[in-house]
Amino acid sequence: MRLRIVYDNEAKEGLESDWGFSCLIEAEKKILFDTGASGDILSHNMQRLGIRREDIEIIVLSHDHWDHIGGLDAVLHPDVAVYVPSSFTRGTKGGIEKKAKAVVEVSGPADIVPGVHTTGELGIGIKEQSLVLETKGGRSVVVLTGCAHPGLENILEAGKVFGELYGAIGGFHGFGKLERLEELKMIAPCHCTVHKEEIMRMYPEKAVRCGAGEIIEI
Ligand SMILES: [Zn+2]
Ligand SMILES: [Zn+2]
């Protein structure tokens, strides 16, 4: 499966960087995980990467923060299904429903397409879902997070339900128990990760520099 970072606080040449996160997952279906903060920047980066809005069959929103759902309107179309934490307000869900094929409310762990699962809503304060992606052959899994507000450790635990942990990609927020990353074989700290540079220094052999335009094959 191939992942392409579309929106991030950092970007490769030709793409725009901005505070927010979005990642395209090319599995059995094309899935966009989060939409960044600005529809203009999202559209610009997608165009540069040759991703058409109509090609996106599923959108998964990790949590209801502007830097993850702000670009949503730019990618909604009548044939897309949008997976949201069930705790989203009725108003938000209703607004999406008008412009999409369906809104799928997520509460517990679930399968989205073969090889792509959601942890379900985690956290007691800000509720957030993360994705769990199977690596080639399906023997291990990579966790893909938005901001990791429920705590990266809790998200990694939730990911283990689906297989042996291989890696983690996304915003890790204030996660500071960096030795806990020892067990992973691949780490891509993105977006809001406070200790990004420390992680890059501590694990140079397995850390991937995140940024819009980065391609990660798993
Ligand atoms: Zn964020
Ligand atoms: Zn957030």
Within CATH, the superfamily carries the name Ribonuclease Z/Hydroxyacylglutathione hydrolase-like
Uncertain regions spanning at least 5 consecutive residues: none
Supply the CATH architecture.
Answer: 4-Layer Sandwich
Radius of gyration: 16 Å
The general outline is: globular
Structural overview:
The structure is a single chain. With 218 residues, the protein is α/β, with parallel strands linked by helices. The protein is built from 5 helices and 13 strands. The protein has helices spanning 39-48, 66-69, 90-99, 152-159, 196-202, and strands at 2-7, 22-26, 30-33, 58-60, 81-85, 102-106, 110-113, 116-118, 131-134, 140-145, 164-171, 186-190, 215-217. The chain is globular.
Structural key phrases:
218 residues; alpha/beta; Metallo-beta-lactamase, Chain A; seven-stranded mixed sheet; six-stranded mixed sheet; 5 helices; 13 strands; globular; binds zinc ion
